[in-house]
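Quick question: who can interpret this fold?

. . .
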Amino acid sequence: ADDYLPKPFSPAELVERVRAILRRVEGAAPSRLVLGELTIDLERHRVEEGGRAVELSPAEYQLLVAVVRAQGRVLTREQLLDELHGLAEAEVLERAVDVHMSRLRAKLADPARTSRYIVTVRGSGYRAATR
């Protein structure tokens, strides 16, 4: 046994503990993610595009990391909201993800019509560009 969670416990606490265990089990997780000219330093919470530092809000940073880590898999708005707020936050609108993605794309000079880094999958969610 790696951990113990006494009753009563909240589902959010259980999810966070499982995530912590999975992070430990994954072992040597990469400290950097790369997507084209985009480099994400996970230890320093820094993003660079072609050597230029990109200032992101915490929400934008979390969304970018989630999409890049998914390695081309489509993440629904609900999955991205869980990344941002956890399971405890039920009142947040799914369209909030669209607003954050729009701001993120503007900061990355990645308009939706060219999609160098983030691709919108109509009716589903978002994924990292694979080219």
Q: What stands out?
A: Residues 11-26 form the longest helix (16 residues). The longest strand covers residues 32-35. The mean pLDDT is 83.
